[in-house]
Amino acid sequence: MKKLIEKRLNYDEDLIAIFLHGINIIFYDGLGFLSVLILAFLFNKLLIGILYIIIFSNLRIHAGGFHASTKLGCFALYNLLFISFILTLNSPLLNPIINIPLTMIATLIIFKYAPVEHIYAPLTIIEKYRNKDKIRFSLLFLLILYIISVGINFEYFKVISITLIYTSMLMILHMNSKYYKG
Q1: Contacting residues for 24 by C-beta, under 8 A, at least 6 apart
Q2: pLDDT per residue over 147-162, tens digit each?
Q3: Could you report the per-residue pLDDT of 109-145, keeping only the tens digit for each?
Q4: Residue 120: helix, strand or coil by DSSP?
Q5: In the chain, at which end, N or C, are there fewer CB atoms within 10 A of the end residue's CB?
Q6: Which domain holds residue 54?
């Protein structure tokens, strides 16, 4: 693809590298989203799958956390997390007595430590503040939805809860890895 772009367009190497990186991200993120939607469809949980993608992806973008070292590993992790999410969603152990305290702990962890940085992708001071503001706004919004969803649909309540718990767990994993910049 790089040779095709170089042949057709007269751009420098850096611009081509940025363009290809963007295409790569769109392709692999799209593939991850599509696979989760297919799994959600197979589990008869399409709306839940869409909510999971929106909430989990938004949290991960701004909070950071553990990342796989390869694209295949990332794809596998994203799908395994979704499958475990679906299995957890149907677990009788996830009742409000367990769910509410775990969600509050996860929220506090995200609130206190986000964004967590990777040593190979450090954030500027401005990016840190923006991500912190965005994650805190997202947490406030999700907690309001969490409270509202208790009375509307317990499954939506669980989607918010599990995604917050997963995000905090991935943050803790990353903060205890050699790639944490803290």
Answers
A1: none
A2: 888 777 777 888 999 9
A3: 999 999 998 887 788 999 999 999 999 999 999 999 8
A4: coil
A5: C
A6: 2-181
Question: Measured in whole angstroms, how far is the alpha carbon of residue 114 from the centre of its chain?
Answer: 13
pLDDT of residue 7: 59
DSSP character at residue 121: B
Do residues 168 and 105 lie in contact, with contact meaning Cβ atoms separated by under 8 Å? yes
Residue with tokens 């912190």: 132
Question: 112 is written with which tokens?
Answer: 């206190």
In whole angstroms, give the CA distance from residue 168 to residue 67: 13
pLDDT < 50 regions, the chain: none
The residue type found at 92 is P
Distance between CA atoms of residues 106 and 116, nearest Å: 14
Say if CB 163 and CB 50 are below 8 A apart: no
Measured distance between the N- and C-terminal CA atoms of the chain, rounded to whole angstroms: 37
Give the Cβ contact number of residue 182 at 10 Å: 8
Residues with Cβ within 8 Å of residue 44, at least 6 apart in sequence: none
Number of domains into which the chain is organized = 1
E strand or H helix at 118: strand 117-118
